[in-house]
Design brief:
Helices cover about 60% and strands about 5% of the residues. The chain is mainly α.
């Protein structure tokens, strides 16, 4: 049976408005449930028994999603291409006689000469800022501009930041104290643009897939399988992350050599040029993306709902308050139908029971994210300390910051392996490697990466001519003396971090999208990204460990925190994991903001 379908040129909001009379019409035909909404027309839905017994697979990914992924790839090329050389730009001194910061084949590139602690502090601040600003981007998108328009605004802001960054590195500026001021301003402006971009590009890519209900498909071999929208979204984010890392890998490698052989001005200019592809591709596909319009201040209504649910549940005893918040009737008692029946429904409640269920699910997702800062601490080591660690080892002519490219390279290799081999094998074996189990695995592989880094650092101290002063070891002529250990032994840390990203970071994007109410997706995504900002803030407290002779303690501390976080995470979500299918299949709720309600009244 064929039904109405939205055209590629018709945004989702316009489509649903035009065909609203056909939405949510359900009938029975030959014992098969058929739904008429322009999205699920003619599909057969699984029975309760089939949900348990049939194998689950993903649907095809819409090509529009790949187009948006190209925008993200260009943005990540520019972001990582620049930020990959930040550590050397801040930490290392300008080479003698250089006006560009290039170290050449045998020298060390540098510019500001502010030492490792300052480099770690500034790069950590930049990470923090980039992941705080998504909260603002989510508010602007959900309440005022919509995701598409907010992304356009973000691109303009980020482009201005890129230009200021280039100015900080041009000859004539890089040799002066003004370079530091321009560099910091560039970080602030770029971080604002990045935050507005990040909170909206991830939900936009997943929104290109419209189906929300599991349905039956018969494979070529006759096997009946369940096509699971949650698995489709997970697969979309796998390849979205693949595009991210293609951009970051190419950007990091090329800019590392641009920095080493030409100078920082080129390492900042080339990413700016590539960044210009973002507005071009965004504009070219403007009529083909499925877009959700802004819906007003959804966050305010959600918080009012939570405050109402909390009435009478506060206690001086925090454990009792926590228990009351987790009670089965916490959200049930504030559903509009129940309050209306009791005559206590407040005037601001312009939504239905299903939207309350969605908000409940969104709050549960944010509770899951509360553990993420302890995982991000391990990932953030690749942005600063592991780059500095490479500079104390024998690089054999390689730039010290080229090793960080092992992380995106490993992701590019292992993401397709997970998609085509590992995950399907687990599915055929009826092993439920759910989203929350993946996140737990991410914590454990992150812990293993830090153990590897701590062991490498221990042997650097043992083999460096200056012992525990490895980062500042020089001979009488001022040439750096390094450990004879080959820099490639860092590979283990980067590969393990890559696996932890596949399990924790990619799954976090998926979880933020699938568990958020449809009109709060940017906000919940921003909450997920905000956990990285919290990790950066926590990381600032550990900057004092980012120097000799304490670096073994630094990596060991990060590993212990990640391990504790993983155990705490699983203890808190193990029951939620059993409800994964139920949460993914909630019926979408209806919400009206106050302005629309007043207009309708």
């Amino acid at each position: 049976m064929s039904g109405i379908q939205p055209t590629d040129l018709e945004p989702v909001a316009m489509y649903e408005a035009k065909h609203s009379e056909k939405i949510s019409s359900i009938s029975e035909e030959n014992g098969e449930t058929l739904e008429f909404d322009g999205i699920h027309d003619g599909l057969e839905f699984p029975t309760d028994e089939e949900r348990v017994t049939l194998r689950r697979v993903s649907d095809a990914i819409p090509w529009n999603a790949y187009l948006i992924a190209i925008i993200e790839m260009a943005e990540r090329f520019s972001f990582y291409g620049c930020s990959n050389v930040f550590t050397n730009f801040i930490q290392q001194p300008l080479p003698p006689g250089s006006h560009t910061g290039a170290g050449g084949p045998t020298g060390q590139s540098g510019a500001l000469d502010r030492q490792q602690q300052t480099a770690t502090g500034l790069t950590t601040f930049f990470q923090f800022w980039c992941y705080v600003t998504p909260l603002l981007g989510a508010y602007i998108a959900d309440a005022h501009l919509g995701r598409f328009n907010t992304i356009g605004l973000a691109i303009v802001i980020a482009l201005v930041g890129h230009i200021i960054l280039v100015v900080s590195a041009v000859p004539g500026v890089i040799e002066t104290d003004g370079a530091m001021g321009a560099f910091i301003v560039a970080l602030i402006v770029m971080g604002l643009g990045t935050g507005l971009f990040k909170s909206n590009i991830s939900p936009l890519v997943a929104e290109q897939y419209r189906r929300t209900k599991c349905f039956i498909r018969v494979e070529k071999n006759g096997e009946r399988v369940i096509v699971d929208p949650a698995r489709t979204v997970a697969r979309m984010y796998l390849y979205f992350y693949l595009f991210i890392n293609v951009g970051s890998l190419v950007g990091q490698i090329t800019m590392t050599y641009a920095e080493k052989y030409v100078g920082f001005w080129l390492a900042y200019t080339l990413p700016t040029i590539v960044f210009l592809f973002c507005p071009l591709v965004l504009y070219a596909g403007r009529n083909r993306y499925i877009r959700s319009p802004p819906t007003g201040s959804v966050f305010a209504s959600a918080m009012k709902l939570w405050s109402l649910a909390m009435k009478g549940r506060w206690s001086i005893n925090p454990l009792k308050t926590h228990k009351n918040m987790r009670a089965d009737d916490f959200w049930e008692n504030v559903k509009p139908s129940k309050l209306e029946k009791n005559g206590t429904k407040p005037s601001w409640m312009h939504f239905d029971d299903h939207w309350v269920d969605e908000v409940n699910r969104g709050f549960k997702a944010c509770a899951v994210f509360a553990w993420y800062p302890l995982w991000w601490l391990t990932y953030n080591q690749i942005n600063n300390n592991l780059t500095s660690q490479a500079a104390t080892m024998s690089t054999h002519g390689l730039p010290n910051d080229v090793l960080s490219n092992l992380d995106p390279l490993a992701l590019i290799i292992f993401i397709p392996i997970c998609d085509f081999f590992i995950y399907p094998a687990l599915s055929r074996g009826r092993i439920n490697f759910s989203a929350l189990k993946k996140i737990f695995a991410g914590f454990m592989t992150g812990t293993a990466a830090m153990i590897w880094a701590a062991v490498v650092q221990h042997y650097i101290y043992k083999t460096n001519p200056c012992g525990y002063s490895a980062a500042t070891c020089e001979d009488a002529d001022g040439n750096a003396l390094v450990s004879p250990l080959n820099v490639w032994i860092q590979t283990g840390s980067y590969v393990l971090i890559a696996f932890s990203e596949i399990f924790a970071s990619i799954t976090g994007l998926e979880y933020a999208f699938t568990k958020a109410p449809t009109n709060m997706r940017s906000l919940v995504m921003a909450c997920f990204l905000f956990t990285s900002a919290l990790a950066s803030a926590i990381g600032e407290a550990f900057v004092s460990l980012s120097t000799d002779p304490l670096l073994v303690w630094n990596y060991g501390t990060m590993g212990v925190l990640s391990f504790i976080g993983g155990i705490g995470f699983w203890i808190s979500v193990r029951k939620l994991d059993q409800r994964e299918d139920e949460l993914n299949n909630l019926t979408a709720g209806h919400f009206e903001n106050d302005e629309k309600h007043e207009q309708r009244a």
